[in-house]
Design brief:
The chain is of the alpha/beta class and about 290 residues long. Helices cover about 35% and strands about 15% of the residues. The longest helix has 24 residues, at about 70-95.
């Protein structure tokens, strides 16, 4: 059991009792972004403030200490979260009563970070991951847990009840699918929820081929499958697929430079210039699937 370094790692309220979570090799990867958000929350000049992540990380019986030297991965996870959250907030600013679907919700606290008091949230994940989620997150009148696969059309029928408009956030999921599955998923969304916005992340084909070299992956036994060198080319998959935004981590850092400490900015700029190919191996993209 990992050592608790300070009281800020304790979950809010009640005695400190760590809970075990049972996850498969892919689902275990959701613990790294949880740790990254909690770690940054503890820092005085952290990039994000996510008290729920701090609470959940402090309540899980897991050795997070193995991530502590992965500062690049920590910053990358948090920048990714910042961009997806920004898309959610922008969508809700235009559609206050809209519907946000968090695919592969895992232990993400997006509702706590972005809820505007009016939107509908659906949080989707596979049975094992959802069982872990339910240990720390409760449903509410505007917050619904959906257990199942993103490839199963049942979840689409479920969220249709809200009436939309829809923003579907697919974070850290698609790279574990095949291209055929990704194409089928996008086609299903466009057919059943025309005009839905879909925010997702993707890897280049080079990144998939060299995934064993990535520091973050040495902690897990998961395997990437799908890669695409230019996410904007998804527009060619079907008429009506429109790319609205496409950014890498360097772009996100620039967009949020007012929030990022000068030292972190300097390191990020240096790494971007030295490892340009690596910077372009990972992208976050926002699409509209079907007519506006």
């Amino acid at each position: 059991m990992p050592t608790i370094r300070d009281k800020s790692e304790l979950p809010a309220g009640g005695p400190h009792v760590r809970q075990k979570v049972t996850l498969d090799k892919v689902q275990e990867t959701m613990l790294m972004p949880l740790w990254a958000r909690a770690s940054q929350t503890r820092k005085r000049l952290g990039l994000i403030k996510d008290p729920k992540a701090l609470e959940v990380a402090g309540a899980i019986d897991y050795d997070f200490s193995k991530f502590e030297r992965s500062i690049q991965t920590e910053i990358g996870c948090v920048l990714r979260t910042m961009q997806f959250d920004a898309w959610v907030r922008d969508f809700l600013a235009r559609h206050p009563g809209g519907t946000v679907v968090d695919v592969g919700a895992g232990l993400n606290s997006r509702f706590e970070r972005t809820d505007n008091g009016a939107a509908e949230y659906y949080e989707l994940d596979l049975p094992q991951a959802m069982a872990a989620r339910k240990q720390f997150f409760a449903e509410a009148p505007r917050r619904t847990h959906v257990t199942g696969s993103v490839l199963d059309p049942d979840w689409v029928a479920r969220i249709k009840e809200s009436g939309g408009p829809y923003l579907i956030v697919i974070e850290g999921v698609l790279m574990y699918l095949s291209e055929e599955q990704v194409r089928g998923l996008f086609t299903m969304i466009a057919r059943e929820l025309p005009g839905a916005h879909v925010a997702f992340d993707s890897l280049s084909r080079r990144a998939v081929e060299t995934q064993h070299r990535y520091a973050a992956m040495r902690h897990f036994d998961a395997t990437f499958d799908w890669g695409i060198d230019e996410a904007r080319r998804i527009e060619e998959w079907q008429q009506g697929f429109v790319c609205l935004d496409n950014v890498n981590l360097r772009h996100v850092a620039v967009r949020n430079r007012h929030l990022i400490p000068v030292l972190v900015q300097a390191v990020a700029t240096l790494l971007a210039s030295i490892r340009r190919a690596t910077v372009n191996d990972y992208w976050m993209t926002l699409y509209r699937l079907g007519p506006a």
